[in-house]
Design brief:
With 697 residues, the chain is of the alpha+beta class. The protein has five domains: 5-146, GIY-YIG endonuclease (3-Layer(aba) Sandwich), CATH 3.40.1440; 162-299, no CATH class; 310-422, Ribonuclease H-like superfamily/Ribonuclease H (Nucleotidyltransferase, domain 5), CATH 3.30.420.10; 451-629, UvrC, RNAse H endonuclease domain (Nucleotidyltransferase, domain 5, 2-Layer Sandwich), CATH 3.30.420.340; 642-693, 5' to 3' exonuclease, C-terminal subdomain (DNA polymerase, domain 1, Orthogonal Bundle). 43% of the residues lie in helices and 16% in strands. It has 22 helices and 20 strands. The chain starts with a strand and ends with a helix.
Length: 697
């Protein structure tokens, strides 16, 4: 075991690897003086725990914690607990590291969850911080990264979308944005869904005529695009509008998104009336359409507020040991949508503990609004508010309202949380029945926990992609979806069998490398730089764990695709994964599907069998995902500019060539002398362009 060591950065390190945990230990000992804590630890009797882990394991874990405790400082910080494999069990913060870690070794008032965590602890690691606020922020960041088993886990931590109005050019761009805020501009949000952002951006385009195209597309235009023709853009790319007038449109958009919507609508209405009085009816119609677009944005807001300009509302509901947190986003007196989250937490945790941990993780990668309304009182609300304030440009208040409009908003969110959790529980129950029936229909040993469905998509062999969708006990697991670009030169265009073989070879070869199950697979994985020992089989009683290997593989196709899939798995040494081919009925009629299983005669399911409907949903989802991936790839290929592939040709020279010749085709047909006469293009550039298009001449 490694001892404690300190560095200039204030870090205390001991132990080994990474992963996360769940329960927050009590703060009762934070106020105890160091000398009192030492005496208490030295004289405390051994505790008899009545737990599955066994008293011996708990005593061993307690001994490990005691060894680390003896050299800990009394400063704020974050601690991590590791098991014997080096996986992180738990991440916690402390106002006083020595007192907090000492609480684990005292054996007082431990819940079963904490006792299990202590029993599995083989090592610890510590990081000191200057303040408890810094410790709280670091704890939330580490939990999201490491996903410890004993911590509250947010699970669905996908970043929320924003609307960005850029400020790095004379023609600001109005776009959807996700991720880090590296680009200069004004950010508005968050929105609950991409659909809400797209709807709002489209309406803002009609109202303010701002461009949404990329900078490269904008800089290379020689004439206005279709959006200008259909009155969705004012055409700044070709100077159809002056810089000053376009800046005025951008200012109006900023004002509308900042809450000055009524003032802007009133000004537009006055200008529409003035244009009508002057008999400029086309101009008046344009203002009418812009006002209608703004009204459309405000008309779909759902719940609006009168006294709250900016707030996030969190409401938690618990049923059957599961938690649901409903979040409503209010900005500029408008409701910008709501979203339900289902965090993973031990059922012994109280709602306020779950909500506090969730809030810290939720705002780890995004700024908090001025007001955060919660359904339950949070013990460290002031500390959490101070931590969020350090990451925001304004002071953050966390409040559990008791009356008036704020209380009504929380109750409304709580009702939505209750309904969302009830729907999830009902869906999970019905999904479990369908999985059990599917296992019975295909003679599986048990109900499958992970189903993978494969399909291909292409047009005459071009832009070919393979797609994999995944379904489990909670429905479609979209975070596990994968696409495969067909790369093999041996696969001829339109060879569906070859495509399926390549997709499954790549998929299962990677599985063997990353998650070997047997000694033979571990040997193959070790040779490829993967684990040298097989992974233990997942616990069938652990309903939260999702296996890496599929229990059933469905192939969209008949006997030919199934045989290609079987050969692909044989080549990578996988022979124990159940394969089923789904052949469409005559005229592709739904309900007449024929199923092919290796070693069995083809069969059908009854036309009204719920299992058949379930399989159809799986197949249709794979088909949808494959077609979507194919269309996205084809779109990228269609808009690709050949000039981008020429070394040394930047935006300025591309713009000069396009302005001079009009199209890429004209540039391709141009003689070397004509290219050299282009304003802004020197002889070397002209030669590079000419050689690129005439390399095979």
């Amino acid at each position: 075991m490694r001892g404690l060591s300190s560095g200039g950065g204030g870090a205390y390190i001991a132990g080994m690897s990474r992963q996360p945990g769940n329960d927050v230990p009590p703060d009762a000992l934070d106020a105890i003086e160091d000398d009192e804590t030492v005496d208490a630890l030295d004289t405390s009797p051994e505790i008899d725990f009545d737990l599955d882990a066994g008293a011996g394991a708990i005593q061993a874990g307690t001994a490990v914690i005691r060894r680390f405790w003896t050299t800990l400082p009394s400063s704020p910080g974050v601690y991590r607990m590791f098991d014997a494999k080096g996986d992180v069990l738990y991440v916690g913060k402390a106002k006083n590291l020595k007192n907090r870690v000492g609480s684990y070794a005292r054996g007082q008032a431990h819940t079963n969850r904490i006792a299990r965590m202590i029993a599995e602890t083989a090592s610890m690691e510590f990081v000191t911080t200057a303040t408890e606020t810094e410790a709280l922020l670091l704890e939330a960041n580490l939990i999201k990264q490491l996903k410890p088993r004993f911590n509250v886990l947010m699970r669905d931590d996908k970043s929320l979308p924003y609307i960005l109005l850029t400020a790095d050019s004379d023609a600001p761009q109005l776009v959807k944005h996700r991720g880090a805020r590296r680009r200069a501009g004004h950010y508005y949000g968050p929105f609950a869904s991409v659909w809400a952002v797209n709807r709002t951006v489209n309406a803002l385009q009609r109202a303010f005529l701002l461009r949404s195209c990329s900078d490269s597309y904008f800089e290379n235009r020689s004439r206005p695009c279709l959006l200008y023709q259909i009155k969705r853009c004012s055409g700044p790319c070709t100077n159809e509008i002056s810089v000053e007038d376009y800046a005025g449109l951008a200012a109006e958009a900023r004002g509308f998104l900042s809450g000055k919507s009524n003032a802007i609508k009133e000004r537009m209405a006055a200008e529409m009336q003035a244009a009508s009085d002057a008999w400029e009816f086309e101009k008046a119609a344009r203002y009418r359409d812009r006002i209608a677009a703004l009204a459309a944005i405000q008309g779909v807001q759902g719940v609006n507020t009168q006294g709250i300009e900016e707030a996030d509302v969190f409401a938690l509901d618990e049923q059957a040991g599961q938690f649901c947190i409903e979040v409503f986003f209010f900005r500029n007196w408008q409701n910008w949508g709501n979203r339900a989250y289902f965090p993973k937490a031990d059922r012994s945790m109280t709602p306020d503990e779950v909500l506090a941990s969730f809030l810290a993780q939720f705002y780890d990668d995004k700024p908090a609004p001025r007001l955060v309304l919660v359904s339950h009182e949070i013990e460290d609300a002031e500390l959490l508010a101070a931590a969020l304030s350090t990451k925001s440009e304004n002071r953050v208040e966390i409040h559990c309202p008791k009356r008036a409009e704020r209380k009504n908003l929380v109750e409304y969110a709580a009702r939505n949380a209750r309904e969302a959790l009830a729907r999830r529980l009902a869906d999970t129950a019905s999904q479990g029945k369908l999985l059990a029936a599917l296992g019975t229909s295909f003679n599986l040993a048990a109900a499958p926990r992970r189903i993978e469905v494969y399909d291909n998509s292409h047009i005459m062999g071009t832009n070919a992609v393979g797609a994999m969708i995944v379904a489990g006990p909670t429905g479609f697991m979209k975070t596990h979806y994968r696409t495969f670009t067909i790369k093999s030169e041996e696969v001829k265009p339109g060879d569906d069998y070859g495509m399926m073989r390549e997709v499954l070879q790549r998929r299962f070869a990677r599985l063997v490398k990353e998650h070997p199950r047997t000694k033979a697979e571990a040997g193959v994985a070790a040779a490829a730089g993967g684990p040298s020992e097989p992974e233990p089989a997942p616990d069938p009683n652990d309903t939260e764990a999702f296996p890496a290997w599929p229990d059933l593989v469905l192939i969209d196709g008949g006997r030919g695709q199934l045989e290609a899939a079987r050969k692909a798995l044989d080549e990578v040494g996988v022979t124990d994964v159940p394969l089923v081919g789904i052949a469409k009925g005559r005229d592709r009629d739904a309900g007449r599907e024929t199923f092919f299983v290796p070693g069995q005669a083809p069969f059908r399911l009854p036309p009204r069998d719920p299992t058949l409907y379930f399989v159809q949903r799986l197949r249709d989802e794979a088909h949808r995902f494959a077609i979507g991936a194919h269309r996205a790839k084809r779109k990228r290929e269609m808009v690709k500019n050949p000039l981008d592939e020429i070394p040394g040709i930047g935006p300025t020279r591309k713009r000069a060539l396009l302005h001079h010749f009009g199209t890429v085709k004209a540039i391709e047909r141009a003689a070397l002398e004509d290219l050299a006469r282009t304003p802004g293009v020197n002889a070397a550039t002209a030669r590079a362009v000419y050689d690129f298009f005439h390399a095979d001449a």
